[in-house]
Amino acid sequence: MPHFLIAQSELPAEREARRRRAGKSSGETYAATLEQIQPGVATTIVSPADDAAPALSTDRLAQFDAVFLTGSPMHVYDDGPAVRHQLDFMRRVFAAGIPSFGSCAGLQIAVAAAGGRIRKMPKRMEAGIARRIFPTEAGRNHPLLAGRPPGWDAPAIHGDEVAELPPGATLLASNAMTHVQAAEVRFDRGIFWGVQYHPELALREIAVAIAAQADDLIEAGLADHEDDVEAWANDLKALHDTPDDPALRWRLGVDGEFAEERLRRREIINFLSNLEALRG
Asked: CA 65, CA 55: separation in Å to the nearest integer?
């Protein structure tokens, strides 16, 4: 049975706040998702951004079958100890030659570690649903996006984005809001597949995140009142419980690619299916 390393970039206070809201830290969510996809899989969670976190050597990292990088509130363009710790960790993952996958901040960390650039989104945040994601020409035949239709929606909540991919990276998907929605990064001895959206999250977790950021959504002009945010979050929670409800799908403007858990997790499933090839 494979053994996966999950690296969460949330700091201790952020992890506890997420546990209070959603019941799990971002790393614990990833572990639960991987266990549901591959029952019995072994997972180890680390927090490389923490001041007291031990630095794992490349030899130790190479003992894992893959590394997963979670989302978090981390602003990768802020030059502070937490960001430097996280980027150093990711460079060791690349040096170890171990396949890695990440979502949201996980994508941004891998891109920055390989020499790319991250920025605050210039217009507004992308919140709740990333709409009309389309594969690039390279993405149409890339195994990360195998099975995706010509366009799809995905759970997302982020105010930062990739501004520039590093050398050796391939853009795989975009939409009107965020140019880099999916990418492959090759750096040093490693290969990373990542997405800006959240295939690992349950819809209830997205709903909780939306409700917790109501003030930010109103400030960004995405909602007029807290009641609007609450009603939208409640629809997401209801879709979590009844994903085949046609009225909820219509009201939220989504199809099965977003509503159905198996389809929503497609990129993670594809990554796991290709691990042997990625390890060379």
From this structure: 18
- The amino acid at residue 69 is L
Sign of CA dihedral 248, 254, 255, 258: negative
CA-atom Rg of the chain in angstroms: 18
Could you tell me the CATH superfamily of domain 3-201+261-278?
Answer: Class I glutamine amidotransferase (GATase) domain (3.40.50.880)
| Cα–Cα dist 92/29, whole Å | 24
CB 162 within 8 Å of CB 107: yes
Sequence spans of domains, the chain: 3-201+261-278, 203-258
Distance CA 33, CA 203 (A): 13
175 pLDDT higher than 80: yes
- Give just the sign of the alpha carbon dihedral 23, 28, 29, 31: negative
Phi and psi torsions of 142, nearest 5°: -85, 135
Residues 87-115 as b/e (b if ≥16 CB within 10 A, e otherwise) read bebbbbbbbbbbbbbbbbbbbbbbbbbbe
Distance CA 278, CA 47 (A): 24
Cα–Cα distance list, 16 to 19, 20, 26, 157, 163 (Å): 5, 6, 10, 19, 30
Q: Give me 143's structure tokens.
A: 């195994």
Residue 271 has what pLDDT?
Answer: 98
**How far apart, in whole angstroms, are the C-alpha atoms of residue 174 and residue 258?**
16
User: Which residues, 6+ apart, have CB-to-CB distance to 280 below 8 Å?
Assistant: 97
**Which pLDDT band holds residue 151 (cuts at 50, 70, 90)?**
very high
pTM of the model: 0.96
Average pLDDT of span 251-268: 97
Taking alpha carbons only, the member of 73, 4, 30 closest to residue 201 is: 30
